[in-house]
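Q: I have 255 residues here and want to know how they pack in 3D. Can you give me a structure?
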Amino acid sequence: MNKKLRKAVIAGNWKMNKTPEEAKELVRAIVPAAKDADCDVVVCVPYVDLFPVLEAAKGSKLGIGAQNCHWAPSGAFTGEVSAPMLSSMGVQYVIIGHSERRTYFGETDKTVNQRIRAALDNGLSVILCVGESLEQREQGVTAELVAMQTKIALGGVSGEELKRIIIAYEPIWAIGTGKTATAEQANEVCASIRSTVSSLYGSAAADALTIQYGGSMNAKNADELLSQPDVDGGLIGGASLKPDAFAQIIKAANR
């Protein structure tokens, strides 16, 4: 991390976990860890948990996010939730382009861009996910693939709007598998993403951009990963469901 240039952000992605009552209990356990943090702390929760979590986090420093949003403001899209719906609730962040959305639900680079446009137009901050599969890494195309994902996702995004975007590098092969990229591998790709953003917006904008690592960061490896110069935080999966582990990751980001 380089805290002189940009803000560290630790964000929890709860995925499809926790009932509304369980969510309230978990947020109440997380709020104290966020209180004295000098990094930003966010939890991105299932849609049904948003109201109770917003209520439980009221008055705290904890940011609240959703895990996706549709590109249309309304319409015949059964099962979807729009950006205006989220912003009207007081939601601040939304994850877009997570590998699980791309892999299981047909998300494409084009629809990622459309969803980002909708989120920004409705005042939300975006956690944009990019990353490669194991096969793509072994083929040596990681840098090119991640650059392409980043460029398409940011199409039509202004330099001012870029300030409301966080990019999370997620090696798909390290999500939910227990495998983790080495700190050097994570930093290498995060630096590559920063270089791509620099080519689009200039070095000052790229230096100010928060780039997270999102592949199985946990309490044991957080210090090493966050010590890297281009890793500015984490998008945390399983460990974000454990208050003590999540607190340890927040502490690592504060060091």
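Q: Anything worth noting?
A: The mean pLDDT is 95. Residues 9-16+35-254 form a domain with the TIM Barrel fold (CATH 3.20.20.70).
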